[in-house]
């Protein structure tokens, strides 16, 4: 059974930074692409970033490009999201996602309704 556990959320002032972590278990971590999504109050869940199974390629939503960096450590079965220059509009629950497809691409995880496993989410609040 795949389990994804996020950590690292919190309250930060605009312009600040946070690093989210997602620890995965239940399958061979290095075989699957991983990603981050977010959902703000009253909004649909949206794609944020993804990384290929090897870590060799990444893919970002335009809204976070240049401010967020996704990375992974396959020895620790963990994926990270480093967020800098945070804005109030980044406030959301952030969800870790694990691709259901073997050796999928980062870009595929950004496709609408791409099948993934979900973590429980971690709250990020950016105050102005």
Tag the structure with descriptive keywords.
128 residues; mainly beta; seven-stranded mixed beta sheet
Could you please describe the fold and organization of this structure?
By secondary structure, the chain is mostly beta strands. Helices cover 3% and strands 48% of the residues. The protein contains one helix and eleven strands. β4 and β5 form a beta hairpin. The radius of gyration is 13 Å and the shape is globular.
Question: How much is the radius of gyration in Å?
Answer: 13 Å
Terminus-to-terminus distance: 40 Å
Q: Which consecutive residue ranges, at least 5 long each, have pLDDT under 50?
A: none
Instruction: Note the run of SSEs as H and E.
Output: EEEEEEEEEHEE
Measured by DSSP, the beta-strand proportion falls in: over 45%
Mean pLDDT over the residues: 96
**How many β-strands, per DSSP?**
11
The rough form would be described as globular
Largest sheet: 7 strands, mixed
Broad structural category: mainly beta
Put simply, the count of helices is 1
Helix content: under 10%
Short description:
The chain has 128 residues and is mainly β.
Summarize the SSE layout with pairings.
Elements: E1 3-7, E2 10-13, E3 18-25, E4 34-39, E5 46-51, E6 58-60, E7 68-73, E8 78-83, E9 92-99, H1 106-109, E10 116-118, E11 122-127
